[in-house]
Amino acid sequence: MSNAPESTVSAPPRAEAAHDLRLQGLTKEYATFTAVKALDLVVPQGQFFALLGPSGCGKTTTLRMVAGLETPTSGSIHLGDSDITYEKPYKRPVNTVFQNYALFPHLDIAKNVAFGLERRGVKNTKQQVAEMLELVELTSQAHKKPAQMSGGQQQRVALARALINQPEVLLLDEPLGALDLKLRRGMQLELKRIQTEVGLTFVHVTHDQEEAMTMADTIAVMNGGVIEQMGAPTELYENPRTTFVANFLGQSNLIAGDIEGRDGDQVKVRVQGAVASVPADRAHAESGQGWLGIRPEKVLIAETGHPIDAPGDVITGGFVTDVSFVGVSTQYQVRMPWGQELMVFEQNTGARGMLPVGTKVDVSWRPEFAFLLDASQDAMAGIEGD
Predict the structure, then answer these.
(1) Same domain, 333 and 284
(2) pLDDT of 335 above 90
(3) Using one digit for the tens of pLDDT, what is the confidence trace for 181-216?
């Protein structure tokens, strides 16, 4: 994949010169591989921006180049009107929060937060430290040592220590990766609250799709050193443009079909003897063969011979091969007549009981929820562990 025009987001015109972060042709080559390939990217000032992708996709290398911890092979990094491509890390108006917190164990929390200011020779730090501790809701913990605090509290201390230096951009490198699931979810909301309150540009690197979608205004999905697609979380999830994005950001059913062409504002696809419709603005192929995509929670299921609630495009002749109860939903695997297994996630509203393994079923989905991708793309791309 190359960086397509839609992968570059530009900030809307503003009355005063904005301090957007701009990467132009940014490339990082090593002896045996290229980690980042001619990356063009604009992060508007004040956004919560996420670089999302699997290990080795280039997201952390990109962050390290912005921080000054890696030197680009080519390309440039601008912050507003300033070219910071080769600026020393300590001279950049940028701070980084790492996964391991990097707190000083012998200093109390207040001293940890004040460290950056005191290192620059600032004498009266008490008021600024108090304001930062209030922001991260740790005022009562000021005199504790890091070892006396939970992982979530330590992460907030690291955040306060970075923010007190008033950077123009805060870089977050997998900042919640060391936390357990419950703490991580709580900190996702906390980070978003803090970013909204301080109004700084946050650039967040993560491999966790839920984390990116919960916090970010804009997500750039990276793969193999390039951006596959970039946009708002809902746009990427509902209308993926590549199989990698469809599979990496959530889960997708991708069904092979023959594209019959456009009919008004719909594209018709013949799928295993049935004709399905896809809105033209969600069809990223218009001829030949394609992958018709539908998210599992958008698929409706009913026992054969029973009506499907709000039916759309219907395919008959399936049977349930696996049932998993996960609390808020029941997840089915349905083997279709051509041998493919489709995923169906049904919310547990109590309207009916679970369909047992072996039940003959029909499946359906509303055409407006489908998307269409070019069949030349690998249907397995982006599936974790693949």
Answers:
(1) yes
(2) yes
(3) 777 888 888 889 889 999 999 999 999 898 999 999
Mean pLDDT within 171-180: 81
Say what the pLDDT of residue 12 is.
Answer: 42
Query: Residue 385's pLDDT is what?
Result: 52
Phi, psi for residue 267 in degrees, rounded to 5: -110, 130
For residue 46, the tally of other CB atoms under 10 A from its CB is: 18
Q: What are phi and psi of 276, to 5 degrees?
A: -110, 155
Kindly state the tokens that stand for 22.
């701009």
Residues 103/116, Cβ–Cβ less than 8 Å: no
Rounded Cα–Cα distance for residues 272 and 101 (Å): 53
Q: Is residue 380 part of a domain?
A: no
Same domain for 38 and 173: yes
Which of 238, 270, 289 represents a domain boundary (last residue)? 238
Residue finishing a domain among 238, 260, 280: 238
Ramachandran region of residue 247, left (φ > 0), alpha (ψ -120 to 50) or beta? alpha
Who's near 17: CB < 8 A, 6+ residues apart? 80, 81
Q: What's the token pair of residue 86?
A: 């080769």
Output the pTM of the full model.
0.88
User: Token pair 């207040």 is at which residue?
Assistant: 110
